[in-house]
Amino acid sequence: MREKFIYKARNSTVKIEENKITAFEKKDLDDYSYRVLRDGYVGAYYCREKIDDDEGYRRAEENLRFKRPYKFELETGVRYRDQTEKVLTDSELMALAKEALEHINNKHPEYILSGSLSVCRTKQGQVNDKGLDLWNSDCTVNSGFSFKHKDSKDIFDGYFGLGQRDFKPGKLYDMTENFLGNYSTRADVPGEIIVQMPYYGLLDMLYGCLNGENIALGTSLLSGRIGEKIFSEDFTLLHDVSDGEAWHTRFFDREGVTLPGDKLAYIENGVLLRGYADKKTAEKYGIEHTGSAYCSFNDIPENGFVNLRIKQSGRTVKELLDGRLSVVPVAYGGGGFNEKGDYTMPVRLAYLSDGERFLERLPEFTLVSNMFDMFGKDFIGVGSDYPIFNDKSVLVRLKTSVQ
Amino acid sequence: MYNFPKNLFTDVRIERHSFMDFSIKDGEATRSGKYDENGAFIKIFDGEMQYTTCTNDLQNIQREIDNLAALAKENKDIYSDPVIKNFGDSKAEILKYDGDEDIRKISPEQAEALVRGYIDSCYDSRVTEIKSCCAGYSAQHTIKEYYSSKGASVKQDMQRCKVYMSFDFSVKDTPSSVWKTLQGMTFDSLLNREKEITLERDRYLDYARNAVDVAPGEYTCVLAPSVTALFTHESFGHKSESDYMMNDKTLQQEWEMGKKVGSEKVTICDNGLLDNNGYVPFDDEGNRAEATYLIKNGVLTGRLHDSKSATALGEKVTGNSRSQSYEYSPMVRMTNTFMEKGSDSPEDIIKGVKDGIYVYGVNYGTGCGTFTMQPYLCYRIRDGKIAEPVRVNVITGSVFKALFDIDAVGDDFEIFDAFTCGKGGQTVHVSTGGATIRVKSLTVN
Question: In this structure, what are the phi and psi dihedrals at residue B246, rounded to the nearest 5 degrees?
Fold first, then answer.
């Protein structure tokens, strides 16, 4: 049996360096993985240059000599998903970049900005001899800027970015105004800290803990707890590749598996339901197969394709705050979770916010919590709206430590 | 070789990479294979804008040059442009790894035997707290060519290989992991180093069994050589990359040459000519690498440049223009960066601490005005002796203060190759080096 993975990426980027457009970059790259399955092994051949399919499969067949084990049946099914809303031409991208830069430079001449605007188009496919024919296409315009006040002694002070399938410059200007227009104000760190942030970074620990193999081996903090209520009643966590902000993802895993509604819950109303597993992990440990295979184009599938999303509440960020103010970390890093699930994160730049707009800038501080508190007693919810980052925001109570 | 368009500056970087991977997890092969990847990066500069593209079709580089030239504006004075004047025009061929030590000659069977040998020696099934064990080998050989309309013609090679092991533990129902990577430039450099892995395994297991949470606060910290290496890279190395300050008067004043920026014991150097992970004899603008002293005895003496930043600041290029691969434009990056050794013995450095933290190992760090390091293994120092292991989540400090707070530098200098550095969306291979040092005060959480 034969199978092929395809990944095509077309990028055009306008680079901005210290408030000037300095470069225009084009990148058109294709990746192919040809795979031949025989007698419980898979031979894989990865290449970037376009070659004839017969030659690709011939080279994959040669690589059966590496004896990579794979004994599972190939999948079937046909589906095409195109998430493209609008495609900017190169000249439209350049015009957008010039307009955006002029606007920001005029409004905020006291800041040094570096970054880029780019159009990213991807097409991902998986086809095989059994008739599998799955394709996902996407196109986004992404902008990202690091900024620095001209009087600052640091190499940069913060950053902001906006990605949209149908890019609205007004949203970028609004974001710029919020980040730069409030940078020179000052406030003290409040006594009660309700953090408001895109939550993807907070899910790192859960990503490892939900690995079905780790749960089975006893190397997850969630080992032995399936069926237990581990987090807040309001906390539901799903693998969700239908999510609107999941740019350039796929609705199929690298074993060609799709899920009903493109979703699967791992934690529902605080109760741990399952860990994630590809076919091999599921068989080895006698656990549920969840369509979670990712794969190097040069090798056999491994466990790990999950696109974790916290279920949104039915209330806006402002409604969840209920009159309280939030703290929005903007530049942070260097910390994370330790083996006990304790979380420590130095925050270089954060703003006080009413949930929709920044009010004042805060001094540096360090956030501390624990995974079970963060998603348990201290979890408030994920807003139904998209203020500040044009993305989902979680609200969670955290504490501060010494700085 | 190529028909470079008139009145424009053009350069072409061609890269040929060969990769090999083999890994085993809990007795089963999880990776096994070899592949090659060839590509080219093409750039045209007209004095105002640069236009770039990359391709895997090495037969059609001329077509890509012509397409980019159509976007640019002709500039009759392009070779008078001070940035272009700073681009290299050398002709050189430095192929060090095409002989007996060429890692492309290593067979999959040799790689598998190496990995299985490490597992046999380092995995101890009697230790019931080890729940999972993974080991692997990976190697990369690269040949880079650089050609420009200024006449540069450079061909150079580089290779690196590593063997790694990781152990997943569950100790008193708390899961944790430790891994150790041994990296070198030749396959032979990976042989017979099992003890380095078993020592790390046993040291971490002792930590997992006995560590107590640290009380957050300000501590005198003694940094082991590998931690000093990361500290050097994060705390000061990134500030020396001068593409951050080309038109930034505040930073130019803050980091003025000759200014005292640290203790007299601090000397920091970057050198792309060393046979280490950041070896780049010629950079991605065709300029020769060199030893650049960034700080000498606490005084700022240099910074890292590409052609553009050197022009902007009126300083000379240092051969630090680097990209991750042919997919990317180069920018100013470190190569092999290290704090030079001092004269203190590590034992005396620890003896001088009444109550502090010995930082043995760190996972990663970040570098801005406030730098961070995330340790995976620390000990308390009490009355000049290393005491119990402590669980530390993050160490932070201000670069403007920490370099002055270094009051001892050891004589146990080492360079560590298993490092990569991220900046601007690109990851490059670097090495970092240092000896045991003592910092009077850092914030420990």
Answer: -55, -45
